[in-house]
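Quick note —
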Amino acid sequence: MLITVRDLAKQIGGELEGDGSLSISEIAPIPHARTTSITFAENPKHCIAAEASAAAAVIVPQTAPASKKTLIRVKNPRAAFARTLAIFHPPRAYPAQVHPTAQLGKNVRLSEGVFIGEFAVLRDNVSIGNRTVIEAHCVIGAGTSLGDDCLLYPNVTLYHDIRIGNRVAIHAGSVIGSDGFGYVQDGAERLKIPQIGNVIIEDDVEIGANVTIDRATMDSTLIRRWTKIDNLVQIAHNVTLGQNCIIVSQAGVAGSVEIGDNVTLAGQAGIADHLKIGANSVVAAQSGVSENLPAGSIVFGTPAQPVMQTKRQIIALRKLPELLRKLGK
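Predicted structure written out below.
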């Protein structure tokens, strides 16, 4: 693929500085840039390295110094970098087809441009929106619906009566709609509580590989639009995840938790059941939350506390052996 720097600048919303007629064939990291490459520099150190590289052009912040190279100045270099990658590496195009080995139940509705891969299974009354892709070995339960432009990677399992919006991506091995973990003690026996709810995933959500999202006991487990879930995350029954949340790998959210908009759960964070996590909160890695968090909280540790409080405790604990030595203990 060849594109002029001028055309690229227009597509990513940048301000051209230098020779816009240069042809670019790739985006490359600074050390590997060639004379037909454009590279990316988001800080002064990177700008110096990019200036010395072979790259023909550089995407830089608006405040970057002048350069002998052709520049594209942008407000948000990382966002421009992402857009440029998408231009040079567009998503794979799938043909509109149903593979002969796929199995379709009764009353399955396939809209225009749908791709169904090898050995996929669609149960009765499944509905698939326009241009949605179902890769090999996926299983979609009865009554489940997917909107337009969704992408299910291989071996995704959607149980029955799941509702998926538009432009949702679910990576390989994820399971959506398995039973919530609900039991009640009856004498010496644990009785299973039937899980009769479902899962609703709104538009523009991305779900990583080997994620599990349980169906609700009643009502719905709800993942709101724009939320991004990393690999190996567990979302329990009746959880509500707000809009534009980030849930990082190995985080776990217990049943009936309500999480507000724009919340970040870092890696291996754990949220106890029936809690409310306010909007714009951040739970640091490996933290355990055991009480409600007001909006805008930033917490760390187990049990999770305001981040500076936990850091002070850690520093004090590191000083403890020396203090004991001085006391002769």
